[in-house]
Amino acid sequence: xxxxxxxxxxxxxxxxxxxxxxxxxxxxxxxxxxxxxxxxxxxxxxxxxxxxxxxxxxxxxxxxxxxxxxxxxxxxxxxxxxxxxxxxxxxxxxxxxxxxxxxxxxxxxxxxxxxxxxxxxxxxxxxxxxxxxxxxxxxxxxxxxxxxxxxxxxxxxxxxxxxxxxxxxxxxxxxxx
Length: 177
Ligand SMILES: Cc1cc2nc3c(=O)[nH]c(=O)nc-3n(C[C@H](O)[C@H](O)[C@H](O)COP(=O)(O)O)c2cc1C
Fold this sequence. Notes:
The chain has 177 residues and is α+β, with helices and mostly antiparallel strands. It contains five helices and four strands. The protein is globular. The mean pLDDT is 97. Flavin mononucleotide (FMN) binds next to strand 3.
C-alpha cells in the first residue's frame, strides 16, 4: 500500500478473531520496529514478541484500564528500552511503536498502542514494573507501551483527508522566493 493509504486506514483495533498471525506478518511488524529512527542511532529498544496466551492474559491486567484487549489478541510486542543507552528512550520507543502500528495496518492486522509508562494497575502498582516482572526483564528497562496484534474482528472507517484539522497547521513563516 502507498504510505498515505496506510495512514488513512490505520485505526486502533481492539477486537480480534482467535486466529494466529502468520509468522511472516509478525516478522514484518518487528522489522518495522527495528527500522525506526533513534536519536544518535543509539537504538535502545528491545522488542519482545509474545504469543503465549497465558502471558498475554497476565499482560492484560498490567494496568487498570485500556489493556484488556491483550487477553484476546493473538500477539503483542512489548517495547522495552534501556535508558542507559539513550536518554531519548521515550521518543525512540514511541517512534518504534508507531512504525509497528503502521506496518500492522499495511499487513491487514489489527493493532492498538497500550500505554504503560506513567500508568498503574488496579492495585496501584506501576504498570511498567508489572510488565517487567511478567517478562523477567531487567529492572532498569523502561516500557513506554505494548502493541497488541491480531486478525481484526472489528472494522473502523478510514480517516479522510477532507476531515483533517487544517486550522492546526500554520504557515506564517513561509518564505516567498
Ligand atoms: C500515546 C498513546 C497511548 C495510547 N494508549 C492506549 C491505551 O492504553 N489503550 C487503548 O485502548 N488505546 C490507547 N491508545 C489508542 C488511542 O486511544 C487511539 O489512537 C485514539 O483514540 C485515536 O483512534 P485511532 O487510533 O483509531 O485513530 C493510545 C494511543 C497513543 C498514541
